[in-house]
Amino acid sequence: MSSIHRGRFGRRAAEQVLDGVPGSGRAGCDPLASVLAAAAAPARDVERAGEDAAVTGFLAEHLVPVDQSRRGQMIKSPLAKLLTIKAGAFALALSAGGVALAAGTGAFTSSSHASAHGAGASSAGQQARAGGHVGVEASGAGAHARAGAAGKAGLTARILPASEAAKTCSALARQAYAAVTGADARTVQVLTETGVQQALDSTALRQVIIDNPQFGSLVATAGGQANVADYCGLLLHLAKLPAPGGLVALPASALSALPAGVVSRIPATALAPVPTADLVKLPAAFLSRLSGSVLVRLPAVVLVKLPAGVLAALHASVLAGLHASVLAQLPAKTLAALLPKLPTATLTLLPAKTLAAALAKLSAKAAAAIVAKLSAKTTAGILAKLPAGSLTQIVPRLPASLVSALPRSLLSGLPPSVLSHLP
Fold first, then answer.
1. pLDDT digits (tens, 9 = 90+) for 334-380
2. What's the CATH architecture for 314-423?
3. Could you give the angle at the alpha carbon of 247 between the alpha carbons of 241 and 253, nearest 5°?
4. Alpha-carbon Rg of the chain, whole angstroms?
């Protein structure tokens, strides 16, 4: 274009040449006018053969985020913008294997130019506000469908790592909050916990997900649109899950993959409304990493799924929150691991049979140390439930004051070798 000098090729002339206006005086002698005239010709069937695939491939290749640092360098000249848009459409036509492709979508008519330019600006503005990818919104039902297919191809869904999913959830919450409050999404930078809760609880969330393909990977990670709110609620430590009854619908792989640092920060209030029948179905790899304050509030039927070491690792002050009725439902092996940390008041409330079964799983020394915390009356009831072998090993280790208070009927069953050493 270096041969075109100022004053010889004005904007009006450029418009006429680019739009193929008859009588422009340049078609047939100017190479550009000749090429554009050919492009504006009606498309033949053979030239349309690869149209959909070409559009999809082209947009998938070029559907990338706009670099913030380059926005100030965008072409500002109206004529240059016009040439850029139409030249881009012409390049797309050539990529399909025929110059008639762009003409088939009406890209070179003056009316479609205004429509495409306006739609492109609108789409770019919406996508920029969403913080996602920028595309050009084509006019017409067929072009819109092709652009949608291209968007899917350019934004292939994938399973996100938890750190990336959390960032995506934050972006989703900001957009949903903007939709609910009517704010400009570009001005919503940081949300309070209340704002996040409002956004993820809102009915606008689903539409925001549908309208923004960049959330496709988040949907795939959560196992569906309906699960996104709860998944983000866990990642962002919401006090209340948007749909507690749907927590069980989250993929077990997604729950198990949550880092311990995320799971341990999930508040008890978030899981409290979840039905017990659903809690039981959650993977143990997820449940076992909940904080102690949350674990001790879970039903016994859920706790029995956990490895004994998970509960045993909890601090004694946390275990004190476990009710005796819950402890009584734990397997003897699990309860035995907890006994050394349980307060005397809780031990006293345990059924004698349950406590005796747990003591039998411990060493004689450990069992004697626990029995020594109890009153003689409580101890007598527990020892009476112990197998003879355990009783023979435990009694000699008890304090003399406690043994002397035990009923003789209980001690009479001990071997003479044991009785001879008793006070």
1. 999 999 999 999 999 999 999 999 999 999 999 999 999 898 888 88
2. Alpha Horseshoe (1.25)
3. 125
4. 37
Domain with CATH 1.25.60.10 in the chain: 314-423
CB 108 within 8 A of CB 93: no
User: What's the whole-model pTM score?
Assistant: 0.57
DSSP states of 337-406: HHGGGS-HHHHHHS-HHHHHHHHTTS-HHHHHHHHTTS-HHHHHHHHTTS-HHHHHHHGGGS-HHHHHTS
22's CB contacts (< 8 A; 6+ apart) are: none
DSSP state of 160: P
| pLDDT (0 to 100) of residue 138 | 33
% of the chain exceeding 90 in pLDDT: 44
pLDDT value, residue 19? 62
347 close to 374: Cβ distance less than 8 angstroms: yes
Give the C-alpha separation, 18 to 24, whole Å.
10
Average pLDDT of every residue of the chain: 74
Strands (E), 140-183: none
199: Cα within 13 Å, side-chain hemisphere: 29
Tell me the three state secondary structure of residue 92.
helix
Distance CA 256, CA 221 (A): 12
pLDDT score recorded for residue 308: 81
Note whether 87 and 121 are within 8 A (CB): no
The letter for the amino acid at 80 is A
Query: What does the alpha-carbon distance between residue 227 and residue 251 come to, in Å, rounded to a whole number?
Result: 9
Query: How would you class 124 by CB atoms within 10 Å of its CB: exposed for 0-12, middle for 13-18, buried for 19 or more?
Result: middle
290 in Cβ contact with 264 (< 8 Å): yes
Is the pLDDT at 318 greater than 50? The verdict is yes
Residue 337 neighbours by CB under 8 Å, 6+ apart? 308, 309, 311, 312
